[in-house]
Automatic annotation (TrEMBL):
Domain spans labelled BioF2-like acetyltransferase: 164-295
Protein name from the UniProt record: FemAB-related protein (PEP-CTERM system-associated)
Database matches in Pfam families: Acetyltransf_6 (PF13480)
UniProt organism field: Plasticicumulans acidivorans
């Protein structure tokens, strides 16, 4: 075995290993302590992928002298509709390689590429917030994320929202909307599934949201908005360090009239600020979409995401997104489905979207 010599000291090259249940605590300690790691690097996602969707997880970590020096969580998603891919991380907006040094990073990338070849996937996809593999083909213009610091003072946070959007929030407040924390996912699924059907998007199974809550415990909760006891909107959020990430949400047919979605995110911001969270991560949006405009209207500035690819069997970059013209007819048809049908059929498709 060769060693890398630096000055008078010698450093053994890192070994790359597959995550086991016994390593979860060590893995998560590394993730919490690394500035570039995200909630989506947590070891629990390996359980989510397998328990909620039946996808195989390959969570790789680099180790030197018994100390983890890098992680690269991967999930294998294979379907007849959308192809065969190794992704870091499926169903997550961020992912990719995080390491303490170049040797660990390179060792993880080399093992991931080798695994992609072994599995004969179409491509390996790494979802980075900044470029990590400049020689790889990438999509850096399709998706952006919206992240912004928040204050512990409600008035300061309200004033930071641009005037027109602030007026929408105030209308929700004046409508007498109320926020309630939920123990389960029933109301979340009701509001979320209605919203995504209206967008022409297949819904995830209710089981997925239950697994998220079971796996991540106190770092995952549900806030629902009601008016006179009637459900208006709901959101499932993740918590990581001092950040909150509202991730899955939606409003019912009544939300528009009472500015329910506007109030939902304000109520979440107000609650988490009081708990000491100081960064609001509005998550990913496609450039030019309604969600992109909504988040900009809150005063958040878009930051490009860099999805980088190692092609194996594919000859070109994948284009699996609703803006692709070939999905236009499917989306239009899906919007017209009865809600019960979309909830029944959606999970069969959504599990393969990654």
């Amino acid at each position: 075995m060769t060693t890398i010599v630096t000055g008078m000291a010698t450093t053994a090259p890192p070994g790359v290993h597959l995550l086991t249940p016994a390593d979860h605590d060590r893995w998560d300690a590394f993730v919490i302590g690394h500035a570039e790691a995200t909630f989506f690097h947590r070891a629990g996602w390996s359980l989510v992928l397998e328990q909620a969707f039946g996808h195989r997880a390959y969570f790789l970590y680099a180790e030197r002298d018994g100390v983890i020096t890098g992680v690269l969580p991967l999930g294998h998603v294979k379907s007849l509709l959308f192809g065969n891919a190794l992704i870091s991380v499926p169903f997550c907006v961020y992912g990719g390689v995080v390491a303490l040094d170049a040797d660990s990073k390179n060792a993880l990338l080399a093992r991931a590429c080798a695994l992609a070849e072994e599995l004969q996937v179409d491509y390996l996809e790494l979802r980075h917030r900044r470029r990590q593999c400049p020689d790889w083909p990438s999509k850096s213009e399709l998706y952006v994320t919206f992240r912004k610091a928040i204050s512990g003072d409600d008035e300061a946070n309200l004033k930071a929202i641009p005037r027109k959007q602030r007026a929408m929030v105030r209308k929700g407040i004046e409508a007498g909307l109320q926020g309630e924390m939920d123990d389960g996912v029933e109301r979340l699924f009701e509001a979320y599934s209605e919203s995504v059907r209206n967008l022409g998007t297949p819904v995830f199974p209710k089981r997925y949201f239950t697994v998220l809550r079971e796996v991540f415990g106190k770092d995952c909760d549900v806030l629902s908005i009601t008016k006179d006891g009637q459900l208006i909107a709901s959101v499932l959020s993740f918590y990581f360090r001092d950040e909150v990430l509202p991730y899955y949400g939606g409003g019912t047919a009544h939300a528009r009239d009472v500015k329910g979605n506007d109030f939902l995110y304000w109520e979440l911001m107000r609650r988490v600020a009081a708990r000491g969270y100081r960064l609001f991560d509005y998550g990913r949006s496609k450039v030019g979409t309604g969600s992109y405009s909504f988040k900009k209207n809150w005063g958040f500035e878009p930051e490009p995401l860099h999805y980088e690819f190692h092609l194996v069997r594919a000859k070109s970059l994948p284009d699996i997104n609703p803006l692709n013209p070939k999905y236009r007819l499917f989306i239009a048809t899906w919007k017209r489905l009865p809600l019960w049908a979309s909830r029944l059929l959606g999970p069969l498709i959504a599990r393969s979207l990654g």
